Amino acid sequence: MYLPPQFSAKDPAIARELIRSHPFASLISTDDEGLPFVTQLPLHLLEEGGGLVLLGHCAKPNPHGRYLQARPRAVVTFLGPHAYMTPRVYPDLARVPTWNYLAVHATVEARLLADFDDKDRLLKHLIHDHDPAYAAQWRGLDEDYQHRMAQGITAFELRVTDLQCKLKLNQHRPESHAAMLAAYDAGNPDEQALAGWMRRLGLTGQGAA
Q: Would you say residue 116 lies in a domain?
């Protein structure tokens, strides 16, 4: 992604945090004609052997599994809170609007998971993430039924080979920070979340010239 240095997260833990708090991702690779093919899906992040692995699945009829098998290199994107920023946060008039956001882009190598035990492990991770109360129900289902359901998905692990994390919060314009923080504090949930990140990064406007 386009990543000016002032917006690049220096702490890799921030990327992991954003992936876990905003797990509904876009998986992007190429189809048989060389065009981008995108699937939206929840992913589970594992930290293994000093590296990162994303686990997920799509429906069996979705051709994305076939594309990943043929061309395993792909990109996964995660979008955190985002919001419009009015130029009224500046003390002068000769300014323009923009959009602030937090995003993570991961380059990955895909490997399809055909074994039921691997699929079951993946599904249990996703159940734990999003509906832990369902875990006992899944475990109690008839084994044949579980296997039939697992046959209806294409499961994969996506091993992360490169990770970029962008925190676009107008860091390079300190004269806007105090008014921007106040506007976001009074705004919708995404704006309030960005206000929290501004405080976390010290972008409060205090001490600015």
A: yes
Say if residue 208's pLDDT is above 70: no
Query: Number of C-alpha atoms within 13 angstroms, CB side, residue 3?
Result: 13
Kind plus residue range of the DSSP H or E element containing 20: helix 12-21
Distance CA 83, CA 100 (A): 5
CATH number assigned to the domain comprising residue 137: 2.30.110.10
> Within a domain: residue 82?
yes
The four Cα atoms 128, 133, 139, 140 give a dihedral, to 10 degrees, of: -170
Torsion-angle region of 49 (φ positive above 0: left; ψ -120 to 50: alpha; else: beta): left
Q: How is 121-186 classified by DSSP, letter by letter? A: HHHHHHHHHH-GGGHHHHHHS-HHHHHHHHHTEEEEEEEEEEEEEEEES-TT-GGGHHHHHHHHHT
Quick one: pLDDT at residue 50?
Answer: 87
C-alpha–C-alpha distance, residues 94 and 69, integer Å: 51
Q: Which of 49, 23, 26, 38 is nearest to 125 (CA)?
A: 23
Q: Classify residue 104 as exposed, middle or buried by CB count within 10 Å of its CB (0-12, 13-18, 19+).
A: buried
Inter-axis angle of helices 177-185 and 189-200, nearest 10: 140
Dist CA 80 CA 91 (whole Å): 28
134 within some domain: yes
Provide the whole-model pTM.
0.95
The predicted model gives 149-156 an average pLDDT of 97
